[in-house]
Write a structure and sequence with these properties.
Layout: E1 9-20, E2 23-34, E3 38-43, H1 49-57, E4 64-69, H2 78-82, E5 84-87, H3 99-109, H4 115-124, H5 138-152, E6 156-160, H6 168-184, E7 188-192, H7 196-199, E8 205-210, E9 213-219, E10 228-233, H8 234-241, E11 246-252, E12 255-260, H9 266-274, E13 278-281, H10 284-300
Helix pairs in contact: 4-5
Length: 305
């Protein structure tokens, strides 16, 4: 088994491709995730996120390139499997299983399993004990998956849209519990989500995929140096953005809002203010949407992604 030592990095992805027949799901993807951090893996539907998570978890292997997890190649690695909890958005269990069966199996697969915490979470999310899992609602299945992933306390924990079917109050309780447990038991967590606005405060780092390629790889604290929003009268916004890298523009009557992908310098800021424009930091949610719009536009226009 190939091993790579770097004590600060939990996951490294280097020039990874994954093709399925004629379809390219990932094309030359590279990034790394630090140990004991929370990474948002973001992007549009079909961007390649689930494929990438399966590679990291060792459920699949790349067509080319290299993935390492805790210094090891994850595919068919018993060590990586034991250190990883990957909960898919469509996680399935045997038809005759009830809650007790799922928790019993989860304990066998996870060395750090905390049964007391699992029971606390079961009560928190009101998961029924006597109902067969196959009869669970979408929200109950999501809650059960959350229980497994959190109580496992695996060094690598991967959530794929973990909240489907949960109401707003339950989602926010999940975020609160996740951060509390992460503070007490640090580990490397990857979360794939479309609810970026709800979850971005949890992230240390964001990787955004579009059309199988990384379009942004940045610590959250550095986003202000990546892009910004400009808003004001449409004609003034157009003049200001004329030579800049505009990711997206929304026109609302006589007003427009554009997301610009470049650092904001003081000269440009002063010019914008003279024209009555408002310059604001871009939120992660706005940036994900803008990069998705640009990738879709480039793809429709035949531009290589």
């Amino acid at each position: 088994m190939e091993t790579h030592n770097d004590n600060s990095v939990a996951i490294r992805v280097n020039q990874v491709t994954r093709t399925f027949g004629e379809v390219s799901a990932l094309g030359g993807v590279s990034f790394s995730i630090a140990k004991n951090s929370i990474c948002g893996l973001l992007g549009s539907n079909g961007a390649g996120k689930t494929t990438l998570m399966a590679l990291i978890a060792g459920h699949d292997r790349p067509t080319s390139g290299e993935v390492t997890v805790l210094g090891q190649t994850p595919f068919e690695s018993a060590e990586v499997a034991a250190a990883t909890s990957f909960i898919r958005d469509n996680q399935r269990f045997p038809d005759d299983y009830k809650l007790k069966h799922v928790l019993r199996i989860a304990k066998e697969f996870h060395a750090n399993w905390d049964a007391e915490f699992a029971n606390q979470l079961v009560a928190e999310f009101r998961i029924p004990a006597k109902t067969q899992v196959k009869k669970f609602s979408r929200g109950q299945l999501s809650a059960l998956s959350i229980v497994i992933a959190m109580a496992a306390r695996a060094p690598i924990t991967i959530f794929d849209e973990p909240y489907l079917g949960l109401d707003v109050a339950s989602r926010h309780r999940f975020y609160e519990l996740l951060m509390q447990d992460y503070a007490a038991h640090p580990r490397t967590i990857i979360v794939s989500t479309h609810l970026v606005g709800e979850m971005e405060a949890l992230f240390d780092h964001a990787v955004i995929l579009e059309l199988g390629k990384v379009v942004l790889d940045s610590p959250i604290e550095d986003l202000s140096g990546v892009a910004y929003r400009v808003s004001g009268r449409t004609e003034n916004v157009r003049m200001f953005t004329g030579s800049k890298n505009v990711l997206s523009t929304r026109e609302l009557g006589a007003m427009s809002v554009s997301v610009i992908q470049e650092p904001l310098n003081e000269g440009a800021k002063a010019l914008a203010e003279l024209d009555g424009l408002v310059i604001e930091p871009v939120s992660l949610q706005d940036l994900v949407g803008a990069l998705g719009s640009q990738s879709a536009s480039d793809n429709n226009n035949g531009v290589a992604a």
